[in-house]
Design goal:
The chain is an alpha/beta fold. The chain contains three helices and six strands. Strands 1, 2, 3, 4, 5 and 6 form a six-stranded mixed beta sheet that branches. β4 and β5 form a beta hairpin.
């Protein structure tokens, strides 16, 4: 019976301990000082999207973006895709009507009266539209030196009014990171104020 009590006690404590560990990992996000952006997996556009990600994070001045992985507090890893393709929409419509009337009379082979009337109307219309599209997506994560994922996001774009889909994805990732860092700072401030 005491084994059952111990097992129940262990199971009731485990989620709380696990939650504390998750909070501790998430609290590392606002304390990042230096990040290395690893090569992204994916198609041909992944390396270009990585470069745009570096530029976007550098402009945001949240932390130092380094080319030396050993000096980094965390590594950004992930995959990205940048596709340019053509969508083709094709439709054909046709309408047709035909009418015919025939009257005939005959008694012998030589005396035959005949009348015939026929009419036909048809219309056909076709259209073909080709539209060039550009889509980009990225799934990235920040991993600390222990290998724990401290942050992740997935962003997609079909392009913005004045920037490419890749540049828009890089900016969306940066904006999401900034919002999540701010939320983590606020949680840390509330947790620190509550423990005083």
């Amino acid at each position: 019976m005491s084994g059952l009590v111990l097992a129940t006690l262990a199971l009731s404590v485990w989620p709380a301990a696990r939650g504390d560990e998750l909070d501790e990992v998430a609290a590392q996000l606002p304390r990042l000082k230096r990040v290395f952006i690893d090569k992204f997996g994916g198609g041909e556009g992944a390396s270009q999207l990585r470069d745009m990600m570096i530029a976007s994070l550098q402009r945001a001045r949240v932390f130092v973006v380094t080319e030396n992985a050993e000096r980094a507090d965390a590594v950004m890893r992930g995959s990205a895709e940048d596709l340019v393709f053509t969508d083709i929409y094709q439709s054909n419509e046709s309408v047709g009507a035909r009418a015919g009337v025939s009257v005939g009379r005959g008694a012998t082979a030589r005396s035959r009266d005949s009348a015939s009337l026929g009419a036909g109307v048809s219309e056909s219309e076709g259209s073909r539209i080709q539209e060039r599209k550009h889509e980009a997506s990225a799934s990235v994560r920040l991993v600390n030196k222990d290998g724990d994922v401290i942050w992740s996001t997935t962003q997609e774009s079909q392009g913005a009014k004045f920037r490419s889909a890749s540049a828009d994805v890089a900016d969306k990732v940066t904006r999401q990171l900034l919002m999540d860092m701010e939320k983590a700072r606020e949680r840390g401030a509330k947790g620190g104020a509550g423990s005083r």
